[in-house]
Structures are given as structure tokens and as C-alpha cells.
Design goal:
The structure holds three protein chains of three kinds. By secondary structure, chain A is mainly α. Chain A contains eleven helices and two strands. The chains are: A mainly alpha, B alpha/beta, C mainly alpha.
């Protein structure tokens, strides 16, 4: 029993990170129909920049803030330099562009930060908290709280603010949004900034647990994508639920089957969802027209 | 006997009935036109007949066989082919290659033969090319054969699509607005072409906006409005039909 | 005599492969050349799949991994001659591609990209984790092909570098010949047609699902043979051959040269294989440059370098 709980707790922790990455995917996908394979690099950058600022002497909260802001700025730059110039390109080209951008960021990170593994101290110490015979790190609670907070914040933003509704309008119909006077380039900029910032936040929160290095981004991108797909591409609620579900599945796989093949869980999920549930758990069915 | 029979075909999009309970038939050598105001459901009907959409109700019979919702490539094997209102040509291939593509069913053999460039593969390709060049001559595109299809004018592309469809030697040919965007001369050329194809015994189903052309070449006309069949008959009787006139006037008044 | 583009490409390739050694400053370049040919072979497969049929794969290194490990494992475990192991690897890759391709090729765009990526990563995961068989991430030795000794007995004495240069060169010429045959055949035309418009391809009777599967299987065999040749000439292989970066390299080489053209594939493979060999500092910047090339080519030269240049030449000639 306590064993199962332990696997569930560790699953929920990583699931919270996947949920954040999936939310990042969702924001950009809704704003531009682009699946940004560089999403995982934002997670890596969040952790790495925090490490750099922290070792340079900045207090941890300040270092984290700097990381989130710098990554958001990078997300905006990526949109302007790589995505906008290719607007209207076929999907194959966009896949190659975002993969290219992700490899570029990874290569740059390797040059700047080196190949070592980095970490920084947990926010509230490393003393495990006992729950029914299982343990959880205080940092895990930070991660879980962070993803729920981001989700609630996004929900409020999209439903309660004019700007949020402008973003939603743009994602529904770009041309119509332009016609009613919404500044769609700004919406794109905002979406990339938010998405990259959320990714970076995930990196900041999880690095004390999993540590980070220049090449962790791809795994996060794939799992975030799997989570987003499981929940239903483009649906924030789906991203949150999909993230936690995938994390739990991975935790259980690692616990009961094989920790070496825990990463396979995500791909099995991707393939299973693609074949049996193409719209995901919360996705809407669409009618395509010729 | 009808070569193509449509029996009670219908489909809804999000609760809205786009086409409802439409029936009619096409005989060999006959030109049947489907007309109606914009949004009457003509192209949707075409998409159901040609297997692009799955109908919500009703049947499509080809030569007596139930082919409802059958994949277009299987319909092609059974002798049904179509053209598209919004042009579906292979843009980056040459005009000649586009036409040869129409010979796919006759031309294709084993992949292995194609990889190894075996004599059988070469012979098939040669036959297809000869046939395609003949067809291009018939539609007046022989001089554009080596050009990239994407560089052709709209009217030429329309003719290219017809040539590609003719390459299949279809028994039933569905033409979705073949003269749209063409000038008077081009329209007349297409006119003759369609009559010629029908003359060789092909059953032709036509959607067209150019009323003069429809009245000139159709043997039989089916009129749709709001997804329902409101009239059918020969050109003379349809053009006198009060319901048809009302539908067109109503559409025009609404548009005006 | 009028030269068709196909014979022109093949002739240029034969001449290049035969004459390039004249300019080699050292024996080391035979090895670089052989690596170029091996990569170009895999990229030719990508041209068929992505350039013609329009289907993306980010997992083709998985098939290279199967080809490579077939040569490492089959001779040792089942006593199969390395040359036959190449064929065995190709057969396993083809069967796997057929099985995996049927479901995943129904997917489009991003979904296909991710599904194929997942497939590739699963293969490399198996190669990394099944240590008892593959010896894991540290890699495994690959037996000698033995053809060089046969040639020597027959009176043709080649250095190791020379042998692999010419052997891989011949395989590449063969691979290019097959691909170019395919291009102008019914199958190749149908692949390019479905890339242009799947709806129209169906209406002229093309079995789109079957055609995509054929392209997937053929390209998997190209990748597999490429992996086998890499393993045999290095006499050592690690699971990196099946890794994501290798898949990305294949796609990048293809789009750099021009994903629709065999000549472009070879050009792209040559550039991206030569670069790290010529610029030793490149190793550090490899990912940076690879990523930059992918983004820039897709934005500024969407057709790739070779087709863009050819278009320019033709344009000014008229």
C-alpha cells in the first residue's frame, strides 16, 4: 500500500512538470497552430539560467525570476526569428524549424553552460514529509502547487480578462480577430512569452529534484506533447489532466515494471492515444471539409 | 438502366441538414446536371457520391453495386472519377505527369519492377505516356506538357483535370464546375469536350453555375435548394418550373 | 545524345566517386568519403519518404540501428555471415517498418513526426537497455566483412580505407539508381502525386495508404543498409546510431540539399559530413550549426540548396 502510494506521489510530481510543459504547448498551439518542439528547451533554460544566476550570487527567488523572464524573452525572439518568417509553410517545414530551433538552443546551452549536471538547493529544505508510510519532498509540493497555480492563473486570464479573450479570439479565427481590431502579432508575442515563461517555471521548480543539464529538453518536450495529446490538443484542462495521468503512469511503470523503460510509457501513451482516442480525453471532434 | 443511382442521400453538419433525401439516376451517355443557388448542397452531394464524405443516410449504386461511402480509390477501380471545384492538381509535377497520374490503375505494377526499372515497368510507363500525350492533345494542352502544372492558367488547369480524369477511361464522370473561371472561348471548348465524352457512352454528372452551358448540354437537370431536390426534368421543363424560378429569385433577392 | 536528368545524376556520381581520390591529400579522406556515402544512402531513403511522398519521419535512425546491430549480433549469435547479416537487418527493418507504418502513416504532420520519433526512441532504448544482448551504451564490436581479403586473393589489394570508400560508393550508386528508377515510375509518380493532393490521388485510383507504406518500408531499408555499412566499416557500433540526433541529421542533410532530389541528398550528406571533419572546432558547435541550418534552410531555401541553384540556372538560361 505504502509502496503504491510512493509510486503515485513520485508520479504526481513529474506529472505536474509534464502538465506545465503541456500547458505551454497548448498556448502556442492555440495561438498559431504550431506545435513547438522547442518547448522542452524552455524547461532546460529555466533550470540552467537559475543555476547560473544563483552561482553568480543572486538570491534564489531573484535568480528564478530572472530565468523565467529571460526564457520568456527568448521565446519571443524565437517566434520573431524562426516562426513568423515561415508563416504559412507546410507542417513538415514547421516541424523541422521548431526541431532545428530546439537543437540550436541545446547547442548554445552546451557552449554556455557546459556539459555538466547542475542543480541548486530546494526551496524549503530536503527533509521528506511522511504520508501514510510514503514520503514526499517539500520541493514536490512546490512543483504540484506551481502547476495548479499556473493552470488557475491561465484560466482566469483567458476567461476574465479582455486580453485573454483576445488571445482566444485569435486562436479561433485569426482573420476575424484582425478585422475586429485585435493586434494579432502582439497576441503571438504574448503567447510565446507566456509559453516559454511557463516552461521555464517548470524547469525552476523541478531542477532541485531531478537536476538539469543542457540536454534534458527533448525528453520534456516529448512527454509534454504526449500529455497534451492525451488530454486533447489545444485544451488547457486536458493538458493539466493529461500531464498528471502521464506522470502517474510513468511512476507506476518505473515502480512495477522497469525503471529503464519508464520513458517508454510516454510513447506507448502517444501511440495508444493516436490510434484509439485521436481527439484526446477532452478534445472536440472536428469535421474536416474539402 | 441507370449506371449511377442516387437513392435518398443525406448528410448533416452539426445538426444542420446540408443535403436531405436526394434521389436521381444517370444513364450511360447521358449528361445530368445538378443546379441550385449557392449553398444548395451541390458540392456536398458530389463529395458524398465520390466517397469523400460519408453520407448520413441513403445509398449510392454504381452499375447496381452498393458503393456508398466507398473510398475514392476503390470507386476509381469501379469506373467512377471526378474533378474538383477548387482544383486538385499535383502542382509541382509537370502537366504530362499529372495526366499520366490518371493512368495509375493501368500503369502500376509491382514496386520491385519499378525500382529495378524492369522492361515491364518501362513498357507500362511508355504506354501511359503515349496515352497521356494523346489526351493532352485532345484538351489542347500538348504544348504545355513539360511545364509545371502550378504555372498554368486557371482555364488550362480545369482542362488538365478533365484530361486526368479521362485517362481513367471512366464509366461515370463527375465534373464539379468545370467551366468556372473560364472565358467564353474556354467554356465552349469544355462544352464540346464534355459532349464528346458523353458521346462515347460515359455517364456524366455535372455541377455548373453557367446556366447557358447547363441548358445547352444537359439531357436532364436536378435542382437543389437548401439541400432538398425541388425539381428535375429536361432543360425546357426545369427552366419553366415556378419552384426553380422562385428558388433562384429568392437567392438573388437575398443576395441583393 | 540527350542526357536525361537521371543519367546525368548517375554519371556525375560515378565520375565524382571515381575521380575524387586523385585529389585526396591523405588516406584519411577515403574514410571521410565512405562516411559521406553511407550518410547519403540513408538520406536518399528520406528523399523517397519525405521529398516525394511528403511523409516526415524523425525515427529513421532506429532502422539504421537495426541494420547496424544485425551486423554486430547475427554473426556472433547465430553464425550468420556479415554480408547476409546486412540483408537480415534490412529484412527486419522492412518488416518492422511495415508493421509500424500501417498505423502511424494514417497520422499527419505533427502527429506523424511524434509517432515516428517515439518509434525511433523505443528502438534506441532497447539497444541501450538490453545489455545482455547489445552490451548497452558502451557499444559492441562488429565482425569483419571479409570481402577485402577475398579481393586481395583475387589480386586486388586495397587499403582498408580504399576498400570501404569504393564499396560504399558502389552501394550508393546502386541506391541512387534504384531511387531514380522509382522516381519516374508509376509508383514514384504516385508518391509525388499524393504529396501534392491526397484527395486527387485517391480519385485517380491511387491506394494512398499502401503507397505511403511502400515509401516507408523502402526508406527503412535504405536506413538499415546505411547502418549496416557504418557498423561494418567502423567494426564497432554504439546505440547512438539509432539515436534521435542521428534521425535529425538525416532529415537535416535531406532538407539542406533539397528533400525532393537525390542529387540534393548526396550534396547535403557531403556538406554536413565534411564540416565536422574539416573544421575540428566544429565538434563543439555541431548542434548549434545543425539547428541553425535547419531553421535557415526552411525559411530561406525551402526547396533546398541544389534545386534552388538548378532553378536559378534554368531561369537565367531561358
Amino acid at each position: 500500500m505504502s509502496e503504491l502510494l510512493q509510486f503515485l506521489l513520485s508520479g504526481v510530481t513529474v506529472g505536474a512538470v509534464y502538465a506545465l510543459v503541456a500547458l505551454g504547448f497548448t498556448i502556442i498551439y492555440n495561438a498559431s497552430d504550431v506545435v513547438n518542439f522547442a518547448q522542452g528547451e524552455f524547461v532546460m533554460l529555466g533550470g540552467m539560467i537559475t543555476v547560473m544566476a544563483y552561482t553568480a550570487g543572486a538570491p534564489l527567488p531573484l535568480a528564478a525570476l530572472a530565468a523565467v523572464l529571460a526564457t520568456a524573452a527568448l521565446g519571443v525572439a524565437m517566434n520573431k526569428l524562426a516562426i513568423e518568417p515561415a508563416r504559412g509553410a507546410p507542417v513538415v517545414s514547421l516541424v523541422i524549424i521548431t526541431i532545428g530551433a530546439s537543437i540550436f538552443i541545446r547547442g548554445a546551452a552546451q557552449l554556455v553552460f557546459g556539459k555538466q549536471i547542475h542543480t541548486f538547493p530546494a526551496f524549503s529544505g530536503d527533509d521528506p514529509i511522511r504520508i501514510l508510510g510514503a514520503t514526499i519532498l517539500p520541493q514536490s509540493l512546490w512543483v504540484i502547487a506551481g502547476s495548479v497555480a499556473v493552470f488557475v492563473g491561465l484560466w482566469l486570464f483567458f476567461t476574465r480578462t479582455l486580453l485573454g479573450r483576445a488571445v482566444l479570439a485569435t486562436s479561433n479565427n485569426r482573420l476575424a480577430a484582425q478585422l475586429v481590431g485585435i493586434n494579432t502579432p502582439f497576441v503571438m508575442t504574448l503567447s510565446f512569452a507566456m509559453s516559454a515563461g511557463i516552461g521555464a517555471l517548470a524547469g525552476v521548480l523541478v531542477t532541485p529534484i531531478t537536476m538539469t543539464s543542457y540536454d534534458v529538453g527533448l525528453a520534456f518536450a516529448l512527454k509534454g506533447f504526449a500529455a497534451a495529446m492525451l488530454g486533447g490538443m489545444g485544451n488547457p484542462k486536458g493538458a493539466l489532466v493529461g500531464g498528471f495521468l502521464l506522470g502517474v503512469l510513468e511512476g507506476l511503470t518505473a515502480g512495477y515494471i522497469s525503471s529503464q523503460y519508464k520513458d517508454a510509457a510516454a510513447f506507448i501513451v502517444i501511440l495508444a492515444v493516436l490510434f484509439f482516442l485521436p481527439q484526446g480525453l477532452f478534445g472536440r471532434k472536428s469535421t474536416d471539409r474539402v | 438502366m441507370n449506371l449511377l443511382s442516387i437513392e435518398g442521400l443525406g448528410i448533416s453538419f452539426g445538426g444542420l441538414k446540408a443535403v436531405n433525401d436526394v434521389s436521381f439516376g444517370v444513364k450511360p451517355g447521358e449528361i445530368v446536371s445538378v443546379i441550385g443557388p449557392n449553398g444548395a448542397g451541390k458540392t456536398t452531394l458530389f463529395n458524398m457520391i465520390s466517397g469523400v464524405y460519408q453520407p448520413g443516410s441513403g445509398k449510392v449504386l454504381l452499375n447496381g453495386e452498393d458503393v456508398t461511402a466507398m473510398s475514392p480509390h476503390l470507386l476509381a477501380r469501379r469506373g467512377m472519377c471526378r474533378t474538383f471545384q477548387n482544383l486538385q492538381v499535383f502542382q509541382s509535377m509537370t502537366v504530362l505527369e499529372n495526366t499520366i497520374a490518371g493512368y495509375h490503375l493501368q500503369e502500376s505494377g509491382s514496386v520491385l519492377a519499378d525500382l529495378l526499372n524492369l522492361p515491364s515497368s518501362r513498357r507500362r510507363a511508355k504506354e501511359a505516356e503515349a496515352g497521356a500525350r494523346d489526351l493532352l492533345k485532345r484538351v489542347g494542352l500538348e504544348r504545355a506538357a513539360e511545364r509545371e502544372a502550378g504555372s498554368l492558367s486557371y482555364g488550362s488547369l480545369k482542362r488538365l483535370e478533365i484530361a486526368r480524369a479521362m485517362a481513367l477511361k471512366p464509366k461515370v464522370l463527375l465534373l464539379d464546375e468545370p467551366a468556372a473561371g473560364c472565358n467564353a472561348v474556354e467554356t465552349e471548348e469544355i462544352d464540346h469536350l464534355i459532349a464528346e465524352i458523353a458521346g462515347s457512352g460515359v455517364a456524366i454528372l455535372l455541377v455548373e453555375h453557367d446556366m447557358k452551358m447547363v441548358m445547352r448540354i444537359s439531357n436532364h437537370i436536378v435542382v437543389l435548394d437548401h439541400g432538398e431536390k425541388i425539381a428535375e426534368g429536361d432543360p425546357a421543363s426545369v427552366s419553366q418550373n415556378p419552384a426553380v424560378i422562385a428558388a433562384y429569385l429568392g437567392a438573388e433577392n437575398a443576395a441583393g | 545524345m540527350r542526357l536525361t536528368p537521371k543519367s546525368a545524376t548517375l554519371l556525375a556520381l560515378v565520375v565524382l566517386i571515381a575521380l575524387a581520390p586523385v585529389f585526396f591529400p591523405s588516406g584519411f579522406y577515403y574514410r571521410v568519403g565512405a562516411l559521406i556515402f553511407v550518410n547519403a544512402l540513408a538520406v536518399t531513403g528520406i528523399v523517397i519518404l519525405t521529398g516525394w511522398a511528403g511523409q516526415i519521419s524523425l525515427g529513421h535512425a532506429g532502422f539504421a540501428g537495426i541494420g547496424a546491430y544485425a551486423c554486430a549480433l547475427a554473426p556472433v549469435h547465430w553464425g550468420i555471415h556479415p554480408a547476409l547479416a546486412v540483408l537480415l537487418g534490412a529484412a527486419v527493418s522492412a518488416v518492422l517498418a511495415w508493421l509500424v507504418g500501417r498505423p502511424i502513416l494514417r497520422l499527419k504532420g505533427y502527429y506523424l513526426a511524434v509517432a515516428s520519433l517515439g518509434m525511433g526512441i523505443l528502438i534506441s532504448m532497447v539497444l541501450n537497455n538490453e545489455r545482455e544482448l547489445t552490451r548497452g551504451p558502451d557499444g559492441i564490436e562488429v565482425p569483419e566483412l571479409g570481402l577485402r581479403a577475398v579481393l586481395k586473393d583475387a589480386g586486388l589489394d586495397l587499403s582498408n580505407g580504399q576498400f570501404w570508400y569504393f564499396f560504399c560508393g558502389i552501394v550508393l550508386i546502386l541506391g541512387a539508381w534504384l531511387a531514380l528508377n522509382l522516381r519516374d515510375s508509376a509508383t514514384g509518380r504516385a508518391l509525388r502525386a499524393l504529396h501534392g493532393s491526397e484527395v486527387a490521388a485517391r480519385t485517380v485510383g491511387m491506394d494512398v495508404a499502401k503507397l505511403k507504406l511502400q515509401a516507408f518500408v523502402i526508406s527503412a531499408v535504405y536506413a538499415s543498409v546505411s547502418g549496416s555499412l557504418l557498423a561494418l566499416q567502423n567494426k564497432f557500433i554504439t546505440p547512438d546510431v539509432a539515436g534521435f540526433m542521428h534521425s535529425v541529421e538525416m532529415v537535416t542533410m535531406a532538407v539542406l540539399g533539397g528533400v525532393g532530389s537525390v542529387a540534393g541528398a548526396i550534396f547535403g550528406a557531403a556538406v554536413l559530413t565534411l564540416l565536422p571533419q574539416v573544421l575540428t572546432v566544429f565538434a563543439e558547435y555541431e548542434q548549434l550549426v545543425l539547428g541553425l541550418v535547419m531553421v535557415l534552410v526552411m525559411i530561406f531555401l525551402r526547396e533546398g540548396v541544389v534545386p534552388s541553384i538548378l532553378r536559378k540556372i534554368r531561369g537565367s538560361g531561358e
